[in-house]
Design goal:
Blueprint (H helix, E strand, L loop, with lengths): L6 H20 L4 H12 L4 E12 L2 E14 L4 E12 L5 E13 L5 E11 L4 E11 L4 E4 L4 E6 L4 E5 L2 E3 L4 E3 L2 E9 L2 E3 L1
Antiparallel strand pairs: 1-2, 2-3, 3-4, 4-5, 5-6, 6-7, 6-8, 7-10, 8-9, 9-12, 10-11, 12-13
């Protein structure tokens, strides 16, 4: 003969089910918290390296060296953030062709565009010239380098000639430089400076 269920146990189970149903009925799923969680996850790097150095070698010769105090990769937002950046490019004879440094660079892996900021210095040994700026953007399509809005860019030759201004744009396909405003400079010819 089957045993009769105990009434107190059945009451307790029904009470528990009633409380559970009431709790579910009063709940709503909070999608905002899930969205915020996803946004936070996008800001957490997948990989972090300190004292990072990347060297490109071809046929036993160094072409490029890039170093950063810190490199962080963000896969969800398709970007790599480099802090304390140094870059060196070498010519076919192994001599230093170009060197650059900046406080920070953000490289977008999907577009291959980049933004660079903070004490930017680019020096070309071949051109005997340097470029100094506080912020620059590289746009791969069209091979353009642009200064940050309202930021001053200074181009100087080793002989003392210089040009500076705001609204800087360089088109490397057309080999053209331009400034939109606040342009000034000086040209040195045979040791005499003109302004």
């Amino acid at each position: 003969m089957p045993e009769k269920p105990r009434l107190p146990a059945l009451k307790a189970l029904l009470t528990l089910l009633t409380l559970f149903a009431a709790a579910l009925g009063g709940c709503s799923l909070n999608y905002e918290e899930a969205r915020v969680g996803e946004e936070l996850a996008a800001e957490i790097p997948e990989t972090v390296m300190t004292g990072f150095t990347h060297t490109v070698v071809n046929e036993g010769r160094i072409w490029v060296k890039m170093a950063a105090e810190r490199a962080a990769s963000y896969g969800k937002t398709k970007r790599i953030v480099l802090d304390g950046v140094r870059f060196e490019e070498y010519d076919a004879q192994g001599g230093l062709a170009t060197e650059a440094s900046a406080d920070r660079a953000v490289y977008h892996t999907d577009s291959e565009n980049a933004e660079v900021e903070g004490d930017i210095l680019i020096r070309s040994a071949q051109e005997k010239a340097s470029l100094a700026a506080g912020g620059l953007s590289w746009v791969k399509e069209g091979r353009r380098l642009e200064g940050g809005p309202g930021q001053s860019v200074r181009i100087a030759k080793e002989d003392g000639s210089f040009l500076e201004g705001r609204g800087f744009k360089a088109d490397f396909r057309r080999r053209r430089l331009q400034f939109a405003e606040g342009v000034s400079g000086g040209y040195v010819e045979g040791g005499n400076a003109g302004r």
